Amino acid sequence: MIKVQSALAAAAVAGLLAAAPAATAALTGVSGETVLAPTPLSAADTALTLLLPAVLGYALGSIPFGLLLTRFAGLGDIRSIGSGNIGATNVLRTGHKGLAALTLLLDALKGVVAVLAGSAVGARFGLAVDGGLIAGLAAFIGHIFPVWLGFKGGKGVATYIGVMGALAWPGAAIFCAVWIAAAVLTRYSSASALAASLVAPLALFVLGYVPEALLSLLMTVLLLWKHEANIRRLIRGEEPRIGAKV
């Protein structure tokens, strides 16, 4: 019996040794690259993988839907109305609620599409998360600093929501919930956006979305900066409420 067991063990070892070259060949590509350890990207490929999502994101984010929609509707240049902003809140001051809602939707969707496009590009090189984050930030920057309008764009609230919705939907949901609650209580769109943008990064950190929370924090800093004039008017009690014509 012992001899039989010894013979079986010897046969098993011999079989493993014989199969080792075949297993190695199966895990190795034509060029000798191991499947389990892909070859690192070159510096040029890495730069292209990170640059392309940025370009796509900025191009999408810089589309001024508020300006385009109001012009198509025959309302003239939205920049000469109300606060001069191209976002949904100022479009609402024209009295066209449907147009304002469409502006809000499209400004949010361009953030979503930018993140998805950036993730798709990054995924081809194993950098899907990085591509999505870069494209999302670029879309937000494109919205508030569009090259087509002399870098004078919107405040970024809707695009912020869209970017967060594509990257970490709980962050977008919390942002919207805080915005709605603050809007009901204060009737100030700017104050609602400021409150929501401050809560969103903290909530994402608590929920474990660290990269997304860092991006959210960066967008919050930019959003606060873009709302500087609104903050001053809020302090003076001169900020117009939601729906008011300026």
Total number of beta strands: 0
- The portion of residues assigned to helices is over 70%
Q: Shape from CA axes?
A: globular
| Overall radius of gyration | 26 Å
Uncertain ranges: 1-37
- What's the structural domain tally? 1
How large is the count of helical segments?
11
Q: Describe the main β-sheet briefly.
A: none
User: What is the CA–CA distance across the termini?
Assistant: 98 Å
Which structural class do you get from the secondary structure elements? mainly alpha
Q: H/E order of the elements?
A: HHHHHHHHHHH
- Percentage beta strand: under 5%
- Could you report the average pLDDT, rounded to the nearest whole number? 84
Write the layout of secondary structure elements.
Elements: H1 2-26, H2 43-61, H3 65-72, H4 88-92, H5 97-123, H6 128-144, H7 157-167, H8 169-186, H9 189-207, H10 210-226, H11 228-236
Helix pairs in contact: 2-5, 2-6, 3-5, 5-6, 5-7, 6-7, 6-10, 7-8, 7-10, 8-9, 9-10
Protein architecture, described:
The protein is mainly alpha-helical. It has one domain. The chain is built from eleven helices and no strands. The chain has helices spanning 2-26, 43-61, 65-72, 88-92, 97-123, 128-144, 157-167, 169-186, 189-207, 210-226, 228-236. Helix 5 crosses helix 7 (157-167), helix 6 runs parallel beside helix 10 and helix 9 runs antiparallel to helix 10 (210-226). The protein is globular, with a radius of gyration of 26 Å.
